[in-house]
């Protein structure tokens, strides 16, 4: 959600979480999949407070229930946990903080052309046990297809071998809003590099935990995963490139 604080606002919070303000009072906040409402509080220079409760409009999520199929028993192996823990720490560190980048004020563009093969918020229930909701938008396209930055920003992470994400690029658009691009066949940027809207940052691939070439685009406000499709008008996708039938199925 994008908004403008009342004139004279000295401090803004969402459910007691500080919200960064631009010089003209503009701000961005994000709500997760299961959020119902949030309280935005503006503390003014003259001591007054303005409080607004923001209701989150309910959405119909794509839920698939398969009663006869069960998830594998047992959790991740100690070997996997030893690898995964430092990866998650690096991702959290890259996403932490709030910078003055202004890409968040732009109209976001599609990061790739292709078929939308996975939507934010979808979920599978196997044998009555809910899986984790899908936290991004999947775009299927041939390996090597360009991946573009949807808005200006600075590269916070460019890792070529994450166990789950594969080749990963994270772009900070400012004020806590970051884009992550997963499963890339290659990264074309380095940490600290400034990128512009429409600049190529990598190429679609199937690295990490993936069963076919696609881009997984995740958008976060701080540690809150939000729907990137809301910024580009999903589910209406750009016209896809011609795609061989062998590359149309992926996970």
Automatic annotation (TrEMBL):
Domain M23ase beta-sheet core: 133-228
InterPro entries, alphabetized: Cell_wall_metabolism_enzyme (IPR050570), Dup_hybrid_motif (IPR011055), M23ase_b-sheet_dom (IPR016047)
Pfam families, sorted: Peptidase_M23
Coiled-coil ranges (or none): none
Signal peptide start-end: none
Domain of life: Bacteria
A Gene Ontology molecular function term of the record: metalloendopeptidase activity
Protein name, UniProt field: M23 family metallopeptidase
Organism name: Glacieibacterium frigidum
């Amino acid at each position: 959600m994008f908004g403008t604080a009342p004139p004279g606002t000295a401090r803004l919070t969402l459910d007691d979480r500080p919200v960064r303000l631009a010089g003209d009072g503009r701000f961005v906040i994000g709500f997760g999949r299961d959020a119902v409402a949030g309280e935005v509080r503006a503390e003014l220079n003259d001591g007054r407070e303005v409080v607004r409760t923001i209701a989150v409009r309910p959405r119909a999520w794509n839920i698939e229930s398969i009663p006869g199929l069960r998830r594998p028993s047992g959790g991740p192996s100690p070997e996997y946990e030893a690898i995964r823990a430092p990866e998650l720490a690096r991702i959290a560190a890259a996403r932490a903080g709030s910078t003055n980048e202004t890409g968040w004020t732009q109209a976001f563009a599609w990061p790739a052309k292709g078929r939308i093969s996975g939507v934010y918020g979808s979920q599978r229930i196997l044998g009555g046990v809910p899986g984790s909701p899908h936290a991004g938008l999947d775009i299927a396209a041939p390996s090597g297809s360009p991946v573009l930055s949807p808005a200006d920003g600075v590269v916070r992470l460019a890792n070529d071998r994450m166990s789950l994400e594969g080749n990963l690029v994270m772009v900070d658009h400012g004020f806590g809003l970051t884009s992550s691009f997963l499963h890339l066949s290659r990264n074309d940027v380095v940490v600290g590099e400034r990128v512009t809207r429409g600049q190529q940052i990598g190429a679609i691939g199937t690295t990490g935990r993936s069963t076919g070439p696609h881009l997984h685009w995740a958008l976060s406000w701080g540690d809150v995963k939000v729907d990137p499709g809301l910024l580009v008008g999903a589910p209406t996708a750009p016209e896809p490139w011609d795609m061989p039938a062998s590359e149309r199925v992926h996970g």
